[in-house]
Write a structure and sequence with these properties.
Helix content: 25-40%
Strand content: 15-25%
CATH architecture of the largest domain: 3-Layer(aba) Sandwich
Radius of gyration: 21 Å
Number of domains: 2
Strand order of the largest sheet: 4-3-2-5-6-9-7
Largest sheet: 7 strands, mixed
Shape: elongated
């Protein structure tokens, strides 16, 4: 069956039918442009072999498109007021399971074992902007079997995810995402493609999970602690930023010594280092 949502008229009819009120706390902005929805399906490379985890289905607009393209879809929605709407709009799709849960508390690895025999899944989401990073990093750090994640995020966040060293967008998020995945910006999406319209532009970004991290590091958590400290005070030199971070317990002399041993300048800033340099510095500091 063809998707019936994905345009302003159908969206308004459904919202009026259920007297739905947008919840600011959930950052709800529903897609109303079929061309954008088709771009997301293409970017995610959904096939009839795929089990798809959708986060934040809203009224089921993108879910209908996913159900047409995939073998099976599990749609996780936190807002209880949307559950009866989803049961209505997705009632004709036998390959969709609606899960009323906070995705940050859901046992996703268990769901993947149950629904996909533990094989890697594809994640697709129109993420609330206020909680984008916790959801993305939660999936990566939780070792969820995942082939890729294709997500709608604030354009500024998408730019940060794919940023290179030395640019103003480059930061801790860039390094964290690129450690786990290869980012690809699939589409820019203007505010008029949503209801209600957000105040900022959006973008669709696909994060293809690395089979192995691009760098080897002895202690992943310590490396990310160093990265966070480096960008918490990004205008300071790395020596000052790391020695000022109480949670690291490092002296200026220790940081200077590690920089010398790894062939880095004493006055270098964190924004100049890539994953390789941060991994080497971490291994040297915590050998």
């Amino acid at each position: 069956m063809a998707p019936t949502l994905g345009n302003p008229k159908s969206t308004i009819e459904i919202l009026n039918k259920y007297h739905f009120v947008f919840q600011k706390k959930y950052g709800q902005n529903f897609l109303i442009d079929g061309r954008v929805l088709e771009k997301i399906i293409r970017a995610a490379d959904i096939t009839k072999e795929d089990f798809v985890l959708e986060i934040g289905p809203g009224i089921g607009t993108m879910t209908q498109y996913l159900a047409e393209a995939a073998r099976e879809v599990a749609a996780v929605e936190i807002d209880k007021n949307l559950i009866p709407i989803l049961e209505d709009t997705l009632g004709g799709y036998e390959n969709v399971t609606i899960i009323h849960e906070d995705v940050l508390r859901l046992d996703i690895a268990g769901l993947v074992r149950q629904k996909n025999e533990g094989r890697p899944v594809k994640v697709v989401a129109n993420l609330p902007y206020y909680i984008t990073t916790p959801i993305i990093m939660g999936l990566f750090e939780g070792n969820v079997p995942m082939e890729s994640m294709t997500v709608m995020v604030q354009k500024e966040v998408a730019m940060r995810m794919q940023a290179e060293p030395g640019t103003k967008e480059y930061g801790a998020l860039s390094l964290a995402v690129q450690y786990f995945a290869k980012p690809y910006l699939a589409a820019n999406v203007p505010p008029n493609c949503f209801m209600p319209r957000p105040k900022v532009g959006s973008a669709v970004i696909r994060l293809t999970r690395h089979t192995e991290p691009p760098v080897k590091v002895n202690d992943e958590k310590k490396m990310f602690a160093i990265i966070r400290a480096a960008f918490n005070q990004r205008r300071k030199t790395l020596v000052n930023a790391l020695s000022n971070a109480k949670e690291l317990g490092l002296t200026k002399e220790q940081v200077q010594d590690a920089l010398r041993k790894t062939g880095l300048r004493i006055d270098i800033r964190g924004e100049a280092l890539g994953l390789n340099e941060f991994a080497a510095l971490s291994d040297c500091l915590y050998r």
